[in-house]
Amino acid sequence: MLYFLIGQQRRYTKYPCILCIWDSRAREKLWVETNWPQRSDLKPVDPNILHEPLVDRKKIIFPPLHIKLGLMKQFVKALLTDGDCFKYTILQFPGLSFEKIKAGVFVGPQMRQVIKDEQFIGTMSDLDKNAWLSFKDVIENFLGNTRASMILTQKLFQNHWRATRRLIAS
Asked: Helix, strand, or coil here: 24?
């Protein structure tokens, strides 16, 4: 629906982000480069823009649950499939297939169950634990009921970015 509102191509896009010109096919730069050129405006001559936008980008709000599920998906996809943490996740959700868990496909109640589970942290390596704790910090202090200050929010996201990047690089 979002791509329809802003006039962007939906499938097989090289530049899928609505905020910047992030090249999804540049795998070697995925976790290395952090500053991608910003999209100034959405015109049909820009990469992957087919039509004039129906709504201004500034008026589009992403629901916090959507962001949380995206961060959870990144975390689970970075886990080693033969590691204890991933195996514990499989045991916690017997109704989900291996492929769904491997792809990080969760719904809100499942994510809340994992966050509340105290034994989940015990199955993690140090890298997994750092990434998980930074993920929980972002959820509780930015996407939760209380909002952190802008400076703290930037630090939260920087810590989460670094921890996830280390986890994927390992």
From this structure: coil
